[in-house]
Write a structure and sequence with these properties.
- 66% of the residues lie in helices and 5% in strands.
- By secondary structure, it is mostly helical.
- The chain folds into two domains: 1-111; 165-309, no CATH class.
Length: 309
C-alpha cells in the first residue's frame, strides 16, 4: 500500500479552528492508511486530533475511533503508544469499550508486557465497579493469563483474590487452567485442584489436572483419566503432552513407589506406545488462541479456525 501523507497544515488548522466535522473525516482516513514510521513521527498530532474530537460529543458520535485506533496500533505493534492513549485523561474514555481493552491487552501480551496488562485491567475493573458492573469473562481470562506468565507468589495471590469474587460458572475454563497452572508452578497443586472446573474434558484442562493430581500423589484418580483417554471414543483425538508426561514422571520419582504409582506409570507407557502424545508444551497449550481448535497432524496438533471454547 503506498504511504498516505496528510496535509499536516490543514489538520493543524482544523484543530485550531475546532472544525471537528472535517477533523473527523481527515483523522478517520489517516488512521486507516498510516504506516509505523508516520505513526511514530506524528503521534502527538494524532493525539491532539483525538482529544479535539473527543471534546465534541457530536464529533465523537460521527465515528467510533476507539477500536479502530487500537487495531491500527496493534497492527503496527506500538504498545507504548497505545498505553499513552489509553492513559490519556483527556481521551481515555474513547477506549472504554471491551473490544478496545482486549485489543490493547492482546498487543501487550504479545510483547510480554504482563504487568502493564494487570494495570490496564485493574483500572478497567475499578471503572466498572463504580458503575455497579462486573468485568467480562474475557478480561478475567487475560488477567489470569498475565498472572500465569508473571509466575510469582504475588501474581498467584492477586489472581486468587479476583477468582474468589467471580461467578465461577460464567468463566472460561481456560481461565481456570491459567490460574491452576500458576498454582502448580508455585508449589500449590492442591489449590490448582480447587480452581479447576469439574468435569472438564478439554485437552488443556486434562493436561493441567494430571500434573496437579500427580503432584498431590493422587495416582488412582490420575489413572482413571488416562484410562478414559485410552478407551473413550469421544476422547480419541486428545493427546497428553510429552512434557507433561516427563513432569509427571519427575513427580513419581519424588514420591514413594506404590501399586497405584506403578499402574499409573504403565498407563503412561501405553499412551506413548499408542502414539497418543504431543510435542506441544503445556505453555503452548494454555496460550493457544481461544478461537482455534485442534486438528490432528502427525503426533502434534495444529490450529483450525473454529468457535471459541
Amino acid at each position: 500500500m503506498p504511504n498516505f501523507k496528510i496535509d499536516q497544515k490543514k489538520l493543524v488548522f482544523e484543530i485550531k479552528t475546532n472544525n471537528t466535522q472535517e477533523l473527523v473525516r481527515t483523522t478517520k482516513q489517516w488512521i486507516h492508511l498510516m504506516n509505523k514510521r508516520q505513526c511514530e513521527t506524528d503521534f502527538m498530532l494524532l493525539q491532539q486530533s483525538l482529544r479535539q474530537i473527543h471534546k465534541d460529543a457530536n464529533a465523537s458520535a460521527m465515528y467510533n475511533f476507539g477500536p479502530t485506533v487500537m487495531r491500527m496500533l496493534h497492527y503496527l505493534n506500538l504498545p507504548d503508544h497505545a498505553l499513552k492513549l489509553n492513559h490519556d485523561l483527556q481521551i481515555g474514555h474513547l477506549f472504554d469499550q471491551l473490544s478496545c481493552t482486549l485489543i490493547l491487552c492482546d498487543m501487550l501480551f504479545n510483547n510480554a508486557m504482563y504487568k502493564e496488562i494487570l494495570q490496564v485491567l485493574q483500572k478497567k475493573r475499578s471503572f466498572l465497579e463504580k458503575k455497579g458492573m462486573i468485568q467480562s469473562r474475557f478480561q478475567n481470562y487475560v488477567t489470569f493469563a498475565a498472572c500465569y506468565k508473571l509466575n510469582t507468589k504475588d501474581s498467584l495471590d492477586y489472581g486468587l483474590e479476583i477468582y474468589k469474587n467471580l461467578v465461577k460458572e460464567h468463566q472460561l475454563s481456560q481461565s481456570m487452567n491459567f490460574l491452576a497452572m500458576l498454582a502448580i508452578n508455585q508449589d500449590q497443586p492442591a489449590t490448582a485442584l480447587d480452581v479447576l472446573v469439574v468435569p472438564d474434558r478439554h485437552f488443556s484442562s486434562i493436561n493441567v489436572r494430571l500434573i496437579a493430581l500427580s503432584d498431590c500423589g493422587q495416582y488412582a484418580e490420575s489413572s482413571e483419566i488416562v484410562k478414559n483417554i485410552l478407551n473413550d471414543t469421544q476422547l480419541r483425538s486428545h493427546r497428553i503432552s510429552e512434557h507433561v508426561i516427563q513432569r509427571i514422571r519427575d513427580s513419581l520419582d519424588r514420591h514413594p513407589s506404590t501399586e497405584d504409582a506403578v499402574h499409573y506409570n504403565n498407563l503412561l507407557n501405553e499412551l506413548q506406545q499408542q502414539m497418543r502424545t504431543s510435542k506441544v508444551t503445556i505453555d503452548e497449550m494454555l496460550c493457544w488462541p481461544l478461537n482455534a481448535n485442534w486438528q490432528s497432524k502427525d503426533k502434534m496438533k495444529t490450529p483450525k479456525a473454529s468457535q471459541s471454547e
